[in-house]
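Side project, low priority. Logging it here so it doesn't get lost.
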Amino acid sequence: MSSCKVFAVAALLFLNAGSAFSTDKTDKLIALTFDDGPRPYVLFGSKGDHPGPALLNVLDENGVKATFFVVGWRLSPKTWGERRYEENVGVTCIDAAEQLVRRGHELEDHTYSHIELRGAERKRGEQWVIGDVNRGAEAIKAVTGTQPHYLRPPDWIISDDARRDLERQGYHLLTISQENPMALRDVNSLDYLCTRKAAECPKPSLLNAVLRQVEQREKRGVYTHILAFHELSTTTAVMPELIATLKARGYRFVTLSQYMQLVGAKP
């Protein structure tokens, strides 16, 4: 093969790297994921002066199974959330996690402490980071009976050394890094900005901002997406329209483990 042809083939492979792991265009997949829970007041709805929608009901009504990246400390006995910021709706986080599993949703690891791991490693060492991840996994296993396979580090931040060591333990780490094929990169919804000043929320709206990201990926030939949201009441409010819109566009909702099996990356 001539050097020109070799260069052309290499260039083509580079351009197609973003869609290398995508399934056939007709198999349009969404793995819907939520971080930072379990938060019972979000999952079951607020009971206060301004009742909020229940995320579990929204998912059930739309026939969607999601994947929840939960924080290990919340799965301590009698814990229902952060007292300063979260409403006690009479359901503990463990009860909420068990309900998630009974309804067919998946629980995966978001660490035990929810501390930014690279900074924690600088202060406490890599073994502390590994221990925090494993401690979160143990809390999940106590609820589900199975070892979690997937880890989303808080803010996707983790050192290369800790990443490699966790992968050797069998974890598949979720990422937004452009070093990964596009189909295996999370779509960062930025939904957490909508809990602050309205001016910080993605424009023109959270819903449209996420759909725009999906459309941009479709232009690259990618029709499989991992959507990263958080357990928030403001996020729950947009879920019915988001799910309906994506279904109308031909997307099928699957759990993360199903997504990885179909798209091609196994833990």
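Brief comment: The mean pLDDT is 90.
Revisit when time allows.
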